[in-house]
Amino acid sequence: MDRNGSLFQWLTLPPAVAVATVFVAGAMGSPLSAEPVNPSFWGMTGLLFVVLSALYGLFIVHGFGVGLLPLQLVAQGILLCPLALSRGARMFQWVGVIMAVCGAVALVNLYHYRRRRPGPAAPKGTDETEVRLPVPFVVTDGEGVVESVSSGMLEAAQLPLEAVKGQSVAVLLTPGDATATLGGRTWDVIQRPMEDDRYYFQLNERVAAPAPEAGATALTDPVTGLQTFRYAMMRLDEELYRTRRYGHPLTVLLIRLVFSAAAERDPDSREAFVAYGALIRKSLRTSDVAAPSGDRELMLMLPECPAASAEAVVKKMLGLLGTLNQDHRSLSEVTALHVAASFESTDDVPNARSLVDGLIASMARKYTLNAQ
């Protein structure tokens, strides 16, 4: 609707419609039945009529067309009450009362309906222009024009949203290249086709994260040298968002080393666990995450790893234990427990906390954790 209103709406202001109301009341009334109306009643009626006319104009200006008819009923009904008496049309006095009451009830219902009504939902399949996530990624159409970009990508490129929105992805990176340089840093580029001929690009920084300042949240576990569990959970939430929104495959794996009672008391068991974690970290991709999730337990998050590839990854991770047997005697008395979950569609994707709790519960059901 035009914000300034249509000509027809302005022509239906209550004072204009009141001309017809006065004419009808006069035509249907009788001078013999006319009664005098107290001037104070006329004054109150006139004041209300002016206020309602001003409100009618505001409704037009703000595009609230659905409220014009109820407001018109209130204004004309209030005017008709004293007018019917003065013109000798007493039966129209009750018509005026009914009009005013019905209009007021309709306005109250409209007010409460608009307060409870949720905001308009985004059409299915559309993307926000900017997604507030720290992971640097961008989604383009088939021609390479940017459709959606994360805040992390804008921060990495040191560009405002206006410089990227609707532009070629070349302002950020070169499609097909394995690396990109943004903000003075080198990034690995993950490029993946999506539905509807769209493309997804994600950046993963190649350099190691700097040591955190005093008081800052650490990204590296001081004991194992892997990422901290808190950081891993943050990344897991981000990757689950990508899976939930775009259908990207994701595999999450829990590996728990259960030593015999004698080996558990041996300090070598802790060293073996740390060495195993370091070996896993070296065998993973830059985009993967490995973090200690409990005592002698590791959580691995593998983006872009579908269920078909998960079994091979699990076999590879467990096979790494055999390469450490000669250096760590405690590994001769260890059992490696594992459980994995893979997601490849946008349906039934949990949040990070629920997923990890579910994996822990699955491991408890799958194994008897009482190795001797």
TrEMBL record:
<keyword id="KW-1133">Transmembrane helix</keyword>
<dbReference type="InterPro" id="IPR029787">
    <property type="entry name" value="Nucleotide_cyclase"/>
</dbReference>
<feature type="transmembrane region" description="Helical">
    <location>
        <begin position="41"/>
        <end position="61"/>
    </location>
</feature>
<dbReference type="InterPro" id="IPR000160">
    <property type="entry name" value="GGDEF_dom"/>
</dbReference>
<keyword id="KW-0472">Membrane</keyword>
<feature type="transmembrane region" description="Helical">
    <location>
        <begin position="7"/>
        <end position="29"/>
    </location>
</feature>
<feature type="transmembrane region" description="Helical">
    <location>
        <begin position="91"/>
        <end position="111"/>
    </location>
</feature>
<feature type="domain" description="GGDEF">
    <location>
        <begin position="200"/>
        <end position="370"/>
    </location>
</feature>
<feature type="transmembrane region" description="Helical">
    <location>
        <begin position="68"/>
        <end position="85"/>
    </location>
</feature>
<keyword id="KW-0812">Transmembrane</keyword>
<dbReference type="InterPro" id="IPR043128">
    <property type="entry name" value="Rev_trsase/Diguanyl_cyclase"/>
</dbReference>
<dbReference type="Pfam" id="PF00990">
    <property type="entry name" value="GGDEF"/>
</dbReference>
<protein>
    <submittedName>
        <fullName>FOG: GGDEF domain</fullName>
    </submittedName>
</protein>
